[in-house]
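Design job #97: recover the sequence.
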């Protein structure tokens, strides 16, 4: 553990900065600052070490200030800091896209770069709407999200998202959006090991939404394979498979938001591979750069931007800094060196399910977190095991039956 101290105690005036998702007045009465980070630890402005148990915001899969990533950013910034991706190209952007396509589930061979997970989500929704229109089905304009789902803070993302506190201040949001129910049921799923046995039938709510609006009006369904911000809700066995089946039946595009679950969080490169269900589009960010620079991506099928027609200009869409070159000198940070890639792809990586031998999901508050014993290897190497949350370390006493 790095024991470096930072003696700086002089703080700037705190009034100008409006902090995101923060009780600003409360924070500024009793501020908490970090001034340094290394590996798994922050250093506070008072020189104390603090374990980053949340991996930033599920961002820093490679740890803070990893020397390979720091060197890549420095080297690239000295070579090319910025270029516009509108009508121009940079070879390493194409190389990164090829690498991501090689990691993706079969059939997802197109890569679109963004600056964040929120932009990735709104891009994916626009791709879905435009794809149907280019195929002559412009009447498919509805989008389906899910309760407890989090899809960023763009207007599209909060419209399909299902966390009420993120939605209530912003009016009616996008029109034509409906929501599936969430999958959490502690009465029937408490103490589940890995994926709950109960709940696959909840996917059939999508048939009810189709019956209400008619399939011809629905463009896409967007869900997180694991509903992370809404409670780290692992999908019931068969649930994702049934969602995929219903989307195929009615011609709906299926979007997996893997901004959090991407890049090894579940034991494979993407949760869709862990669960064996391939969507039509995947949204990414966070682990793509290990949180070091703002960057996201959308993986789609080859004709996602053209509607399968191959005709005319592609979508008039793109962020100013999509495919920013500053982290393109090396590999994606989500697989930034060979050892990390071996860890992510080893066949015995079972992610959350690994804890079944040493602990169980237990109903603490409203969240079915993973509980592990103090000697559990999944606790000591939680990052390598890609466990989303290891908490309630119980020591030698046994879990309830």
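Job complete. Output follows.
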């Amino acid at each position: 553990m790095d024991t470096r101290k930072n003696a700086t105690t002089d703080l700037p005036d705190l009034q100008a900065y409006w902090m995101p998702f923060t009780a600003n007045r409360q924070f500024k009465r009793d501020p908490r600052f970090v001034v340094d980070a290394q590996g798994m630890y922050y250093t506070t402005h008072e020189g104390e070490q603090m374990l980053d148990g949340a991996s930033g915001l599920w961002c820093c899969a490679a740890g803070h200030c990893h020397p390979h990533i720091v060197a890549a950013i420095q080297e690239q910034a000295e070579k090319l800091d910025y270029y516009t991706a509108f009508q121009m190209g940079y070879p390493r952007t194409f190389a990164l896209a090829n690498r991501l396509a090689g990691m993706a589930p079969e059939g997802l061979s197109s890569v679109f770069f963004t600056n964040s997970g929120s932009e990735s989500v709104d891009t994916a929704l626009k791709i879905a709407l435009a794809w149907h229109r280019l195929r002559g089905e412009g009447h498919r304009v509805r989008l389906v999200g899910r309760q407890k789902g989090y899809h960023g803070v763009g207007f599209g993302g909060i419209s399909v998202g299902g966390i009420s506190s993120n939605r209530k201040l912003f009016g009616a949001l996008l029109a034509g959006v409906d929501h599936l129910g969430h999958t959490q049921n502690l009465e029937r799923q408490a103490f589940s090991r890995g994926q709950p046995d109960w709940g696959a039938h909840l996917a059939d709510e999508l048939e009810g939404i189709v019956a209400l609006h008619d399939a011809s009006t629905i463009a896409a369904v967007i869900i997180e394979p694991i509903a992370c911000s809404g409670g780290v809700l692992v999908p019931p066995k068969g649930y994702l498979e049934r969602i995929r089946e219903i989307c195929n039946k009615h011609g709906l595009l299926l979007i997996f938001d893997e901004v959090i679950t991407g890049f090894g969080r579940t034991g494979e490169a993407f949760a869709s591979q862990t669960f064996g269900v391939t969507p039509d589009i995947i949204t990414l960010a966070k682990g793509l750069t290990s949180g070091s620079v703002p960057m996201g991506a959308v993986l789609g099928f080859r004709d996602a931007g053209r509607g399968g027609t191959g005709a005319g200009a592609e979508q008039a869409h793109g962020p100013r800094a999509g495919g920013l070159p500053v982290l393109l000198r090396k590999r994606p940070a989500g697989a930034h060196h060979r050892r990390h890639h071996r860890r992510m792809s080893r066949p015995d990586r079972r992610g959350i399910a690994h804890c079944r031998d040493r602990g169980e999901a237990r109903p603490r508050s409203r969240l079915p977190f993973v509980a592990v014993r103090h000697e559990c290897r999944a606790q000591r190497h939680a990052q390598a095991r890609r466990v989303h949350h290891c908490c309630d370390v119980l020591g030698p006493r046994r879990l309830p039956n």
